[in-house]
Amino acid sequence: MAVPRPLIAGNWKMFGLGPAVDEARQVAVSLLAKPAAVRVAICAPATLVERLARAVEGSALIVGGQDIHQEASGAFTGDISAEMLADAGATMVILGHSERRSIYGETDALVAAKAKAALRGGLEPIICVGETLAERQEGRTLQVICGQVKASLPTELDGHAFAVAYEPVWAIGTGLTPTLEQIEEAQVALRQAMVEALGEAGRGAPILYGGSVKPDNAAVILKAREVGGALVGGASLKAVDFLAIVRAAG
Ligand code: PEP
Q1: Which atom, in ligand 1's list, is nearest to the CA of 213?
Q2: Distance (Å, rounded) from C-alpha 245 to C-alpha 216?
Q3: What digits encode the pLDDT tens for the residues 193-249?
Q4: What distance in Å separates the CA atoms of residue 53 and residue 172, rounded to the nearest whole number?
Q5: Cβ within 8 Å of residue 101, ≥6 positions away
Q6: Distance, CA 233 to ligand 1 centroid (Å)?
Q7: Is 160 annotated in the active site?
Q8: 63: closest CA among 78, 48, 73, 82?
Q9: Nearest to 210, CA basis, from 17, 35, 43
Q10: In what helix (H) or strand (E) does residue 243 lie, and over which residues does it extend?
């Protein structure tokens, strides 16, 4: 499989009503006027996916969701499946975000099941891992994130497009970022763990960095070893900030 282009993906979390579609439209228009060197995605709340997909149709902007249930359909009140997200126009989905792991108790095994479901539904998964502050302070960062990646990536990913996102939990939404050395150490270890888990298939998938990526630190972070893009929360909500990050990627 050809080496995929880096990916800059926005995670809107539970933010955005109808007018937010305009922010995505601005990103799409900018990409039409000046194509980016990277792939660009916005992972929106499920309620906005169809509107976003329609608004940015014909542009290079990828529309994604933020979670799925592992089954295709069933009596799971409040949940949506990969097939439903794809039907609404999404082609990508974030899985195992630390907020889902910590608030909803999602385990590595569940994340792996959801990743298989994403493939079944035709969605490209972005599988998130990351250590808590306590785990870092205990010197267990690499053990934790490599363990998460090995248990969260099903072998079925072989032959499919997917990404891993390294997101230190303590850096999400806090304005704190690890040092470049800490980012590189984690990304390099994750690459090795992905190869151990998936063989050659673990070599090509981009490993995004996520955690307080902003227009003023993006260029430096994106040049770090094994950083194949970024997962961007807060700074993806405004087109002007998100585009600044996209353009910082080259
Ligand atoms: C995220 O939600 O995945 C994230 C990285 O958030 P922020 O960029 O706001 O830290």
Answers
A1: 8
A2: 8
A3: 999 999 999 999 999 999 999 999 999 999 999 999 999 999 999 999 999 999 999
A4: 27
A5: 107, 111, 128
A6: 3
A7: no
A8: 48
A9: 43
A10: helix 239-248
Per-residue exposure over 49-81, b if at least 16 CB sit within 10 Å of its own CB, e if not: bbbbbebbeebebbbbbbbbbbbeeeeeeeebb
Residue of 8, 11, 12, 170 to mutate, ligand 1, most atoms within 8 A of C-beta = 11
Instruction: List domains and CATH numbers for the chain.
Output: 7-248 (3.20.20.70)
Pocket flag, ligand 1, residue 234 (CB < 6 Å): yes
Structure tokens at 9: 């993906």
What is the Rg, in whole angstroms, of the alpha carbon atoms belonging to the chain? 17
DSSP H helix total and E strand total for the chain? 11, 8
Cβ of residue 11 lying under 6 Å from some atom of ligand 1:
yes
The upper half-sphere exposure of residue 117, i.e. CA atoms within 13 Å in the direction of its Cβ, equals: 23
Whether 233 lines ligand 1, by a CB cut-off of 6 Å, is yes
Residue with tokens 């006027």: 33
pLDDT one-digit tens code per residue, 91-150: 999 999 999 999 999 999 999 999 999 999 999 999 999 999 999 999 999 999 999 999
